[in-house]
Amino acid sequence: MENMMKKIALLFSVIVSSFVAVQPAFAQEQQQVPTLVLISNVNIFDGSDKLVADMSVLVEGNKIAKIAKSIEAPAGATVIDAKGRTMTPGLIDCHVHLAWVISSPYAMFDTPADYQAALALVEAKAMLMRGYTSIRDTAGQVFGTKRAIDEGLFPGPRIWGCGAAISMTSGHGDFRTLNTESRQMGGSNFTEVERIQLVIFADGVPEVLTAARMQMRKGAHFVKMFTGGAVSGLRDPLDITEYSFDEIKAAADEAKRWNTYLSVHSYTDASVKLALEAGAMSIEHGNLLTDSTMKLLAEKGAFLSTQTGLFLGEAPADWNPEQKAKQKATKDGLDTMFAAAKKYKVKIALGSDLVGPPAAKAEQAKELSFRLPWFTPVEILNQATTNNAELLAMSGPRNPYPGKLGVIEEGAYADLLLVDGNPLENLHLFDEPEKNLALIMKDGKIYKNTVN
Fold first, then answer.
1. 164 vs 204, 222, 350, CA distance in Å?
2. How far apart (Å, rounded) are the C-alpha atoms in residues 391 and 263?
3. Could you identify which of 172, 215, 388, 413 might form a hypothetical disulfide with 163, taking C-beta atoms 3.0 to 4.6 angstroms apart as the criterion?
4. What is the CATH number of the domain that holds 215?
C-alpha cells in the first residue's frame, strides 16, 4: 500500500511539473499575438499648425504600424471610427511629484508608507485619465509605483524618476525642524524627509557622489539636485545659490558616468549659470533668468523645464509673507523668461510641479491653457509632446522605454488621444479631459473609449 501511494505521489508530481512547465510557454505564445486597433476618419496633429485630415492609423501591439488615407482592417482588428476627431500624441508632464500626495512633507512624516503608495497609484491613474501617458518625477519614491504600472497591475503613465532629490543642509529640500541636527553634527543618521525618500542630504563632494550613486543604484533614470533658493522653502531664500561649483560638477559628472544627465532646481541667474557651467542639462523653473544666462542655456543645449499654473494662482493661505513675496517675484518673471527663451530658441519643456492632495493636482489638466499668454496652441502642444519626449530620451541607456514618443509616426509607441474638437483652435479642450478626451491609449492599450 505504501509503495502504491509513493507511485501515485510521483505520478502526480510529474503531471503537475509538466503542466507548470507548459504554462509559461503557452502564456508567452499568447502574449506574442499582437492586438490590432484601426482608427479611421481621424485628423492628426503632426506638430504643425494644421491638422492632417481624414487619415487612418493602424496600431499593432504597442506601436503605430501604419498611417495612411485608407487602411483595410486586418482580420480580428478592433475598428474605431473617430468621426473627425483630433488625434494627438499622449501628453507628457516633465515635472511632477507623484509621491507627494498629502498636504505637506510634515503630514507625510506621520503617514504610513503603504497609504502614500496607494494614493500615488490613485493619482497615477488620474494623470493618465487627464491624457498624460508619460511623466517625469523630479523628487520622490516612485519606483514601486512604476513597477506596478509596468507590470499591468494598475493603470498609469510611463514614469521616469530620479528617486530622492539631492539637497544641501538648509537647501530647498531641508524640511527638518530647527531642533534636528545634521548627521555631521551628531544628529540622526537618517531623518524623516530622507526616510520617505523625498530628499537625500549631502554636503561636500564625497557625500554628493554617494547620494547620486545611491539613487542610480535604486534605478533612477537621471539625477536631480537643488542648486538655488525656492519659493515655498522655509530655510532657503529665493536669491541664494545652493551648492558650490565642485559639488554640482560632481553630481553632473556622476550622471554622465551613468550615461544620463543632471536636472537642477534653480530660479536665478547666478544659480542657473553656475549649474550650467558645472554640467547640468535640465533647468527646472528658471523664472528669474535674464538675457545673458538664457543665451548660455541655449549654447549648452540644455532644456528649460517650465511651469506656469504653479505661479499663476493665489499663494496658499498658510504661507508667510516672505513665501508670498517670493511667489509674486517668480510670477512676474515669467514674461521676461519666456521672451528670452524665444529669442534664443531654447528648448522649452512643460511641467506642472503640483504637490498635495488630489484637488491640487487636478490643476495639471490646465497647464496647457495656462501658457496661452506666451505661446500659440501649436507651440504648447509641441512642448507637451515632442519637446518633452526629447528631454526624456536624454536618459540614454537609463531610459526605461527606449522607443519613440511624443509623435504620431509609424514605429512610434502607440500613446494616443482622441480629442472632441480641434485643440489648435481651442486648447481649453484639455481643461476638461473627462468631457473632451474620447479615447486614451497608452502602449497600444485602450484605457478610455467613449467614441460612439
1. 17, 11, 21
2. 10
3. 215
4. 3.20.20.140
